[in-house]
Each structure stands twice: as structure tokens, then as C-alpha cells.
Amino acid sequence: MKSIILVGGKGTRLRPLTFETPKQMLPLVGTPMIECVFESLASHGVTEAVLSLGYLPESFIEAYPTNVIAGVKVTYAVEPEPLDTAGAIRFAAEFAGLDETFLVVNGDVLTDLDITRLLAFHRERGAEATIALHPVEDPSRFGVVPTTPEGKVIAFVEKPPRDEAPTNQINAGTYVFEPSVLARIAPEGRVSVERETFPALAADGVLYALADEKYWLDTGTPQAFIKANVDLLKGREHVHEFVGIENGSWIHPSATVDPSAKIINSVIDRDCIVSHNAILIESILMPGAVIQADAKVSSSIIGPGAVVGSSSVLGAICVVGANVHVAPKSELSGDVRLGGV
User: Exposed (0-12), middle (13-18) or buried (19+): which is 125, by Cβ within 10 Å?
Assistant: First the structure.
């Protein structure tokens, strides 16, 4: 099985962390998110994949110069210009010469979706394209997909008002495509799979969808990124084995943590320093971050090389960019973003 992984977005909701690092390269318990995605795909028989790159493509190419990620052979397809979702799929498929049924996955989604079941459903229905669905409490931020009892898509409603959504089953960002779908995508320019390709397929009666209630999380916001890490710390099963989680936290062997520090459901990556009487609660320290004495950090993300000054209090949700220094005795909370270009 072959797959296209969409990783071209700029990750604006996770800035300033994504000014220099694509969101799919941000770490989940010390492991780049993209590796977790690839390991899940490999467990369902994906042996080759195309990374559809647009933003900071060199980050992926330099990290995996052998063109292999988690045992999956990788082709790098770098968009010459922003092509939107369908345009990116078309470009990546043509670049790699895909000519058989293939999978499309959003690279910032952490999920236990049963891809094998999705593929079997697609073939049983004789579909041209099939969408994986997931139920959510508030569907207004997503593409909503009402279906017939047999799974045929009736409509594709992109980001409807919450009280007008026809269902709470949303597009989960994983699709099965026949090569014939590519002919439906305009050969040049920006084309949206959600707003253009899917509605056209639904109108022709060849678009199907299958609901799956397994774990699913769009990691594209600070809150969701923290939740993804905390869920893994708390023992959520995943194909990847996260070695070294103890007492609900993960501390890289190269990190220095003072014995008086209090660490709760947090990630402390390589070369970090956590000083005397510091407190971390459900927070992520990226490589080289420093938490000085008596500082308290909760539900926040501290970027690479950043320093949180002594006696500071950072509460939900603070995102501190790479190499930013937070002054001692600072008190920050809410959607606080520090750093950038």
C-alpha cells in the first residue's frame, strides 16, 4: 500500500514554535510527530509514502536523508507553490507516479484509525474515494459529512455553524483514493479537496465514508499538542514504544532535574535543566529549555533553548518560542505567545 502524507501547512496555530520547525517535526514525548504517523501507517501495510512538502521542506529532507521513515520508503515531493489540499495531492501523486489505489493522510493527526478496515470498506463499496469519519462534540471547525446508512456521502459541508451541522461526524483527514480522482483535480493552481473535489465526488455518487470512534486528535493547537503528549504519558497505547515514562512523566537521560523539583505529567527533552523547587504540570520542555529556581509552569510549551526565569508563573496556555528568555518573576496566563521572527 502506498500513501501520500500532507505536511505542507505552515502550522500557524502553533506559532511561534513553527516559525523554524514544521509542526509535524515537533516532538511527541521526544519523538518527532511524523515518525509516530509513519509507524501507524506501517502497521497497516503501508510500505511506500510520498511526503507532500511545502513549508520548510529541508527540515524533513535533512532529518531523513536516507528516504526512510519508520521503515517506510519515502519520496519527497516539494510543491513549487502553495497548491492547497487537492492540488498538493495531485502534485505528489504525479511526482511519485502513483497509479493504483492509495491512501492520503494529514500529517498532524494522531489516531488509531483502523486503516485496514477503511480500505476493505472502500473496496466493498466500489468507491472512487472514501473518507474516514470521527464524531466530535463541536463540528463547526471541521468538514461535516452526512451519509446514507450504506455509507454513501450525501453532502460535504465545510465548517458549518454548530447549530446548523447536519451531523457530528467530521472528516478525520484520512482518505482512500482511486487514481481516477486525480483526473478530477484541475491540473494547475490551488484546488481544495474539501471544498471542490469532495463535493463533486458526492454529487456523482462515488464518495463514501466510514465512521470510526477510535482515538483521534488534530494536534494543530497548543492545547491539542499538550493533550497528545499527556495522553501518551498516561498510557494511551500507540504503535511506537515510548521508553522511559516513569510516574506519568518522561525525562530524557541527558536532562538535569533538581531532586526538589516537582514534575507532573510532563515531558522534559534532551539537555533541559529544571532547577531547585521548580514545578512542571502537564507541560512540554523542548530540547535545551531551562526552568530556573522556584518557577511554576503548567499546561504550557517551552521551546528549544528557551529560559523561564526564577519565580515566574506560567499558566495555561503559554507557548514560549525558541531561545526566548522569560524575565524572572513573570506572571503569564491565557493564550500567551512569546517569540517569533
Answer: middle
**Domains of the chain, earliest start first:** 2-218 (3.90.550.10), 243-338 (2.160.10.10)
Sign of torsion over alpha carbons 108, 111, 114, 116: positive
Per-residue model confidence as pLDDT tens digits over 102-139: 999 988 888 888 899 999 999 999 999 999 999 888 88
Is pLDDT of 341 > 80? no
Q: Provide the annotated active-site residues.
A: 159
CA distance 145 to 211: 10
H/E segment holding residue 170: strand 169-177
Nearest-angstrom CA–CA distance, 291 and 272? 8
Whole-model pTM?
Answer: 0.89
Angle formed at CA 201 by CA 196 and CA 203, multiple of 5 degrees: 95
Distances (CA, A) of 90 to 106, 127, 233, 316: 15, 18, 37, 40
**And the C-alpha cell for 204?**
456523482
Contact between residue 326 and residue 338 where contact means Cβ atoms under 8 Å apart: yes
Contact between residue 74 and residue 39 where contact means Cβ atoms under 8 Å apart: no
- Residue 260, pLDDT above cutoff 90: yes
Q: What is the pLDDT of residues 267-320, one digit of tens each?
A: 999 999 999 999 999 999 999 999 999 999 999 999 999 999 999 999 989 999
Cα separation of 152 and 202, whole Å?
A: 8
How far, CA to CA in Å, does 194 sit from each of 144, 158, 331? 10, 7, 42
- Return d(Cα 219, Cα 283) in angstroms, integer: 15
